[in-house]
């Protein structure tokens, strides 16, 4: 069965193409448009100035609490990001797209994360798929041209659906239990159960990690239209943070796909795409620095407005609060400087960018979490009251730890590298 669940008060025109009737007739020529045609008719580039990003961030913040409480898909925020052109970032220049540097990725997702991290995460999943396509040409050409054309008219959301209930995080290794096999007509049949599928209710296309059933299987991502028969979304997401990210389970009941929708690699020949995280993948971490900046904003406002009777003046005038404000700023400057430094290395094709990025992730995560926890500890009960946004920021920022590379993995890789580099050469004198 196919299940699409959306907020009851969302107008049909605000839903992605996959939640609308199948497009026939006038929209069909998008399949036949060449990349040159798309480039010639490209919309203006998105405004990535600080002021423009701040405006979008404020739009997202206006509805973040509402969606956090309801857990519904954040269509209002997604539409705001689309209208600003940010959902099309990363599309290759040959299609008239706006390519995204690692530094701008950090800037964009920090701003979106400050407004609504659920919308920021949903956006990042789509943008990262466009960046990958620009580098690898993974999609069938005609289909991707349609994605680009449709994305100009409405939000077209993409995501790689990889995690599984039994497997856990794919970054830790293993093969997917989700299977894909050839059909008699040369197509594919997909079957499996995925978990933690961010954006699930709003996706236009799922890129489903699957494997053939062979001794040395083909492994890769199958491109699945969200409205394909056999796609079922199971609303399992009831999480501490990012409650509006629609990170539900998805079942694939013998989904039939065309031959060109799956191109796997032999498992024995696959390599981990570390270099991708060293680039725009940093944005998925930077969005949580945005969460911490939002927490800081509330802390500073509260400090100026709170006037205890016994004190007779704002607590912002006390040395204790001033020192705490300094500690929070120090943590956030640390996180931002690490993120931007690694991003610049990636943009400059620094060969050390990969290993720096792997270790940067837990360092940024620690700093962001620490900044929010410091604010909460200082303010006490008001910080944990649902009437104030700080408790939401506390819940959201803790989600940074689950994204790969997770801390133990990053530290293990860094430790192995440093130990290997320090291995004495044979015959070298011992100190």
From TrEMBL:
Residues 48-125 form the Acyl-CoA dehydrogenase/oxidase N-terminal domain. This is Acyl-CoA dehydrogenase. Residues 283-403 form the Acyl-CoA dehydrogenase C-terminal domain. Its EC number is 1.3.8.1. Pfam families: Acyl-CoA_dh_2, Acyl-CoA_dh_M, Acyl-CoA_dh_N. One of its GO terms (molecular function) is short-chain fatty acyl-CoA dehydrogenase activity. Keywords: Flavoprotein, Oxidoreductase. PANTHER family: ACYL-COA DEHYDROGENASE, ACYL-COA DEHYDROGENASE YDBM-RELATED. CDD domains: ACAD (cd00567). It comes from Frankia canadensis. Residues 1-25 are annotated as: Disordered. Residues 164-255 form the Acyl-CoA oxidase/dehydrogenase middle domain. It comes from the Bacteria. InterPro entries: Acyl-CoA_DH_C (IPR013107), Acyl-CoA_Oxase/DH_mid-dom (IPR006091), Acyl-CoA_Oxase/DH_mid-dom_sf (IPR046373), AcylCo_DH-like_C (IPR036250), AcylCoA_DH/ox_N (IPR013786), AcylCoA_DH/ox_N_sf (IPR037069), AcylCoA_DH/oxidase_NM_dom_sf (IPR009100).
């Amino acid at each position: 069965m196919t299940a699409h669940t959306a907020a009851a008060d969302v107008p049909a025109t605000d839903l992605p193409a996959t939640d609308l009737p199948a497009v026939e007739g006038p929209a069909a020529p998008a399949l036949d448009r060449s990349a040159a045609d798309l480039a010639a008719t490209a919309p203006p580039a998105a405004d990535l100035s600080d002021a423009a990003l701040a405006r979008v961030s404020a739009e997202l913040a206006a509805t973040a609490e509402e969606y956090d409480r309801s857990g519904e898909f954040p269509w209002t925020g997604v539409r705001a990001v689309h209208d600003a052109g940010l959902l099309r970032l990363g599309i290759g220049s040959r299609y008239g797209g706006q390519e995204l540097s690692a530094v701008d990725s950090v800037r964009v997702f920090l701003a979106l994360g400050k407004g609504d991290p659920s919308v920021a995460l949903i956006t990042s999943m789509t943008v990262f798929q466009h960046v990958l396509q620009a580098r690898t040409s993974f999609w069938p050409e005609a289909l991707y041209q349609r994605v680009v054309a449709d994305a100009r008219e409405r939000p077209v959301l993409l995501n790689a659906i990889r995690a599984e209930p039994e497997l856990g995080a794919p970054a830790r290794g293993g093969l997917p239990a989700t299977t894909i096999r050839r059909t008699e007509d040369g197509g594919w049949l997909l079957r499996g159960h995925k978990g933690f599928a961010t954006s699930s209710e709003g996706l236009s296309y799922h890129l489903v990690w699957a494997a053939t059933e062979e001794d040395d299987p083909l492994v890769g991502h199958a491109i699945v239209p969200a409205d394909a028969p056999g796609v079922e979304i199971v609303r399992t997401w009831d999480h501490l943070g990012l409650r509006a990210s629609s990170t539900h389970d998805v079942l694939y009941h013998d989904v039939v796909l065309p031959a060109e929708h799956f191109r796997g690699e032999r498992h024995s020949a696959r390599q981990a795409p570390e270099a991708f995280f060293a680039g725009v993948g940093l944005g998925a971490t930077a969005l949580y620095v945005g969460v911490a900046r939002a927490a800081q904003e509330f802390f500073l406002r509260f400090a100026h407005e709170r006037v205890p009777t016994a004190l007779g003046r704002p607590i912002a005038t006390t040395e204790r609060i001033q020192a705490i404000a300094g500690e929070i700023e120090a943590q956030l400057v640390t996180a931002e400087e690490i993120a931007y430094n690694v991003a610049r290395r990636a943009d400059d094709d620094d060969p050390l960018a990969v290993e720096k990025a792997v270790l940067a992730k837990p360092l940024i995560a620690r700093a962001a979490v620490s900044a929010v926890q410091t604010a909460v500890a200082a303010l006490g009960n008001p910080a944990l009251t649902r009437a104030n946004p700080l408790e939401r920021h506390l819940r959201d920022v803790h989600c940074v730890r689950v994204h790969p590379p997770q801390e133990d993995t990053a530290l293990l890789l860094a430790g192995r590298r440093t130990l290997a580099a320090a291995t004495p050469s044979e015959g070298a004198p011992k100190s």
